[in-house]
Amino acid sequence: MKFELTKHAQKALGEREIPAEWMERTLSAPELVLPDPDDATMERRFRRIPEFGNRVLRVAVNTAVEPNRVVTVFFDRQMKGKL
Q1: Residue 63 carries which DSSP code?
Q2: Residues 4-41: pLDDT tens digits?
Q3: Strand 3-5 relative to strand 55-62: parallel, antiparallel, unpaired?
Q4: CB neighbours (10 Å) of residue 22?
C-alpha cells in the first residue's frame, strides 16, 4: 500500500515511539475502519497491537489523495476493549 506521511504524523511516530511497521500494519489490515465525523475525506483505521499489550492504534488517513496521506497516529484509549 502506498502512502505518505504529513510532518505531524512523522513527528507523532517519533515522539510516541510507535514503530512504522505497526502503522503500516494498521493501514493495510485494519480491524475497524470508521469515517471521520468532521471530514468526509478522512478515515480512521484501528488495529490492536499485540506487542504493546493489545492497545488499539488509530491511524487517521486522508483517502481523497493518491497516495493516501497519513495525518496522525496514536494509541486510542477510548477504543480499549472495543475491538
Answers
A1: -
A2: 999 999 999 999 999 999 999 999 999 999 999 999 99
A3: unpaired
A4: 18
Of 12, 21, 1, which is closest to residue 60 (Cα–Cα)?
12
Pick the CATH number of 3-79 from 3.40.720, 3.30.70, 1.10.10, 3.30.2310: 3.30.2310
Length of the chain: 83
pTM of the model: 0.93
Ranges of each domain in the chain: 3-79
- What whole-number percentage of the chain has pLDDT above 70? 100
> CA-to-CA distance for 68 and 60, rounded, in angstroms?
10
Q: Which residues pair with 11 in a beta bridge?
A: none
Identify the bridge partners of residue 73 per DSSP, sorted by sequence position.
59
